[in-house]
């Protein structure tokens, strides 16, 4: 409970979503340096695969990678490597040596799956999955990709779905892109969750018990905590899908709780008070321990017993199954994996 919060207000719109606060440049590493750092703190790798003769590579370095917001986010969340695909140097990576036998370094050929296109940004996530994504990108093109791999969204959502939700979350900045989406594929963002405070939820609960869905949120970045951009995308897209919101309103009492509130909260058999301005509420600490990630969604059954906590982004079809799994109490008789396989039709 000693963790202080920075007084940096996050206005949830595009220009501030990846905010540098200082004029940084990308601190490019060698493969050897990145692997050494990764052994101490595990992060995704971002590998800029380029050649000296590639004009678009030079332009991306001079524009997108020179953007201080992009550079700061990459420095904080990745081990960035700048890799000349045609280098004649021997590269040691993953305990193996890679040389250039005439066309390109064998490591470049491996990372690009033989498709030698430049520039290509190769993302290697925390699970060692390799994703080469070719082509020049402006800041707004690369931002969804950075968040997708930095925040491990790749573990539970497709890049296509997340990128689309990212665009809809900042629609004013992606008007042209959204206008090109087919009408039948456009997103429904008309839904609205009927959020309650604790007193309102418990008053309704006493009359008609239902499961509780608790959303713990904050409007500034906790010190030492990676900003959960993917969680904000989830709130601004998935939690506006009317299919999702209607199901939540019908089957749960949804509670929205400000993590740094100064109110006294009586809930779950205890009384919790604020810890001072800029500090996590006692209830926030009781719920999260030292794992401060925002927003976080907590599920409780119709006896107010804790079931699970979800952080970050889940695509809408997956989240709908999660909601039903807990609302229908399917967890009493089967694993979520089995339930998901039976109910996932998309």
Describe the structure.
The chain has 346 residues and is an alpha+beta fold. Helix content is 35%, strand content 19%. It is built from 14 helices and 14 strands. Helix 7 (159-169) packs across helix 10 and helix 13 crosses helix 14 (336-343).
Question: Please, what is the oligomeric state?
Answer: single chain
Flag low-confidence runs.
1-21
Share of residues in strands: 15-25%
| Strand order, sheet with most strands | 3-2-6-7
C-alpha-based Rg, rounded: 23 Å
What is the tally of helical segments?
Answer: 14
Average pLDDT works out at 89
3D shape: elongated
Topology as a string of helices (H) and strands (E)? EHHEHHEEEHEEHHHHEEHHEEEHEEHH
Brief account:
The chain is of the alpha+beta class and 346 residues long. It has helices at 14-17, 31-40, 55-62, 68-77, 106-111, 139-150, 159-169, 175-179, 198-207, 229-236, 242-251, 282-288, 316-327, 336-343, and strands spanning 5-9, 45-50, 79-84, 91-93, 96-98, 120-124, 130-134, 212-217, 220-222, 253-258, 265-267, 270-272, 296-300, 306-311.
